[in-house]
Protein: Replication factor A protein 3
Amino acid sequence: MADHVSPRVNSARLADHIKQTVRLTCKTLRFKGDTAIVQASDGGEVEIKLLREANMTKQYVEVIGQVVDASTIRMMSCINLGDELDMNLVNDVVELASVLHFIYRYTSAFTYSYSKSALEYARSNERTVVQLQKITPRSS
Structure:
């Protein structure tokens, strides 16, 4: 099941996921040959290498694909989301999910302790800071 995980990303998070499958919620800006230029939820532009059968008919789409480099995704699939979408909300979800993934992954070794390192990580990377209470580790 873990092989099918595809985290939600914005343009700033692409570099963290090179050669991995991700989900990018974005606004279509323009098409250029077999590529599309889109605007990610954080406002950054990303190049999408399109599938021949790509059907991007709406202004907002979710691209599922493999990250080629820090600004390019090779499309595997696309979901049309409509012509209106709150991209600030989408970006908040991306950032929160990223911080929560870090906390989940790196705090399981602590027993009922404050996750100081997770807070420092979030602050040092200027990401969404989540107020943490005591963290209970995962059961093995």
